[in-house]
Amino acid sequence: MTYERACAVADVPLDEGLAVDVGDYTLVVARDGEDVYALQDLCSHAAVALSEGEVSDCQIECWLHGSRFDLRSGKPTGLPATEPVATFPVEVRDGDVYVDITTTLNGVTPS
Predict the structure, then answer these.
(1) What does each C-alpha distance from 57 to 21, 61, 85, 100, 107 come to in angstroms?
(2) Calpha distance 73→39 (Å, rounded)
Protein backbone atom coordinates (compact mmCIF):
# COMPACT_ATOMS: atom_id res chain seq x y z
CA MET A 1 0.00 0.00 0.00
CA THR A 2 1.15 3.49 -0.83
CA TYR A 3 -0.20 6.21 1.42
CA GLU A 4 -0.15 9.88 0.48
CA ARG A 5 -0.82 12.79 2.82
CA ALA A 6 -4.31 14.19 2.31
CA CYS A 7 -4.71 16.78 5.08
CA ALA A 8 -4.38 17.44 8.79
CA VAL A 9 -6.97 15.77 11.03
CA ALA A 10 -7.60 19.18 12.60
CA ASP A 11 -8.75 20.51 9.20
CA VAL A 12 -11.62 17.99 9.00
CA PRO A 13 -14.79 19.30 10.69
CA LEU A 14 -16.93 16.86 12.68
CA ASP A 15 -20.18 17.67 10.86
CA GLU A 16 -19.07 17.98 7.24
CA GLY A 17 -16.53 16.54 4.85
CA LEU A 18 -13.39 18.11 3.51
CA ALA A 19 -12.57 17.94 -0.21
CA VAL A 20 -8.93 17.05 -0.88
CA ASP A 21 -6.99 16.16 -4.00
CA VAL A 22 -4.83 13.05 -3.69
CA GLY A 23 -3.13 11.87 -6.85
CA ASP A 24 -5.67 11.86 -9.68
CA TYR A 25 -8.71 11.83 -7.40
CA THR A 26 -10.75 14.31 -5.45
CA LEU A 27 -11.74 12.68 -2.17
CA VAL A 28 -13.92 13.64 0.72
CA VAL A 29 -12.30 13.09 4.10
CA ALA A 30 -14.80 12.84 6.93
CA ARG A 31 -14.71 12.14 10.66
CA ASP A 32 -17.02 10.23 12.94
CA GLY A 33 -15.66 10.89 16.41
CA GLU A 34 -12.01 9.88 16.33
CA ASP A 35 -12.41 7.71 13.21
CA VAL A 36 -11.40 9.18 9.84
CA TYR A 37 -12.65 7.99 6.44
CA ALA A 38 -11.93 8.76 2.79
CA LEU A 39 -14.41 8.34 -0.05
CA GLN A 40 -14.50 9.49 -3.64
CA ASP A 41 -16.01 12.96 -3.57
CA LEU A 42 -18.71 12.13 -6.09
CA CYS A 43 -22.29 11.07 -5.41
CA SER A 44 -23.12 7.92 -7.38
CA HIS A 45 -26.61 9.24 -8.08
CA ALA A 46 -26.07 12.76 -9.39
CA ALA A 47 -22.28 13.17 -9.76
CA VAL A 48 -22.04 16.13 -7.38
CA ALA A 49 -19.53 16.69 -4.58
CA LEU A 50 -20.31 14.77 -1.39
CA SER A 51 -17.98 17.13 0.47
CA GLU A 52 -20.73 19.76 0.26
CA GLY A 53 -23.02 17.61 2.42
CA GLU A 54 -23.42 17.02 6.13
CA VAL A 55 -21.83 14.23 8.16
CA SER A 56 -23.62 12.49 11.05
CA ASP A 57 -24.06 8.98 12.43
CA CYS A 58 -21.14 7.68 10.30
CA GLN A 59 -22.90 8.81 7.10
CA ILE A 60 -22.46 11.62 4.62
CA GLU A 61 -25.49 13.14 2.94
CA CYS A 62 -25.46 14.45 -0.62
CA TRP A 63 -26.61 18.06 -0.58
CA LEU A 64 -28.51 17.83 -3.88
CA HIS A 65 -31.05 15.03 -3.48
CA GLY A 66 -30.39 13.75 0.05
CA SER A 67 -28.73 10.43 -0.78
CA ARG A 68 -26.73 9.14 2.17
CA PHE A 69 -23.62 6.94 2.18
CA ASP A 70 -22.00 4.92 4.96
CA LEU A 71 -18.53 6.35 5.61
CA ARG A 72 -17.09 2.89 6.32
CA SER A 73 -18.40 0.99 3.31
CA GLY A 74 -19.47 3.62 0.78
CA LYS A 75 -22.84 1.85 0.51
CA PRO A 76 -25.92 4.00 0.04
CA THR A 77 -28.05 4.19 3.17
CA GLY A 78 -30.68 6.52 1.76
CA LEU A 79 -32.32 6.95 -1.63
CA PRO A 80 -32.21 8.02 -4.39
CA ALA A 81 -28.65 6.60 -4.67
CA THR A 82 -28.50 2.84 -5.20
CA GLU A 83 -24.80 2.39 -6.08
CA PRO A 84 -21.90 2.67 -3.61
CA VAL A 85 -19.03 5.14 -3.84
CA ALA A 86 -15.37 4.14 -3.61
CA THR A 87 -13.80 4.07 -0.15
CA PHE A 88 -10.06 4.16 0.50
CA PRO A 89 -7.75 2.95 3.28
CA VAL A 90 -6.82 5.68 5.76
CA GLU A 91 -4.03 6.00 8.31
CA VAL A 92 -3.61 8.81 10.81
CA ARG A 93 0.01 9.65 11.61
CA ASP A 94 1.17 12.49 13.83
CA GLY A 95 -2.07 14.40 13.32
CA ASP A 96 -2.15 13.99 9.54
CA VAL A 97 -4.48 11.91 7.36
CA TYR A 98 -2.87 9.60 4.82
CA VAL A 99 -4.87 7.82 2.11
CA ASP A 100 -3.94 4.91 -0.16
CA ILE A 101 -5.56 5.63 -3.53
CA THR A 102 -4.06 2.56 -5.20
CA THR A 103 -6.76 0.30 -3.78
CA THR A 104 -10.34 0.62 -2.60
CA LEU A 105 -11.75 -1.00 0.51
CA ASN A 106 -15.06 -1.89 -1.11
CA GLY A 107 -13.95 -2.92 -4.61
CA VAL A 108 -15.69 0.05 -6.27
CA THR A 109 -13.61 1.48 -9.11
CA PRO A 110 -13.32 5.26 -8.75
CA SER A 111 -14.31 7.30 -11.77
Answers:
(1) 25, 10, 17, 24, 23
(2) 9
Q: What is the pLDDT of residues 37-55, one digit of tens each?
A: 999 999 999 999 999 999 9
**Mean pLDDT for the stretch of residues 20-48:** 96
Selection from 29, 32, 31, 33 nearest residue 41 by Cα: 29
Closest CA to 39 of 94, 83, 96: 83
Those residues whose C-beta lies under 8 Å from the C-beta of residue 107, and which sit 6 or more positions away, are: none
N residues, the chain? 111
Residue 93's Cβ-count burial label (10 Å; 0-12, 13-18, 19+) is exposed
In the 8-state DSSP scheme, what is residue 30?
A: E
Give me the long-range contacts of 24-31 (CB less than 8 A, separation at least 24). Answer: 24/101, 25/101, 25/110, 27/88, 27/99, 27/101, 28/60, 29/90, 29/97, 29/99, 30/55, 30/60, 30/71, 31/55
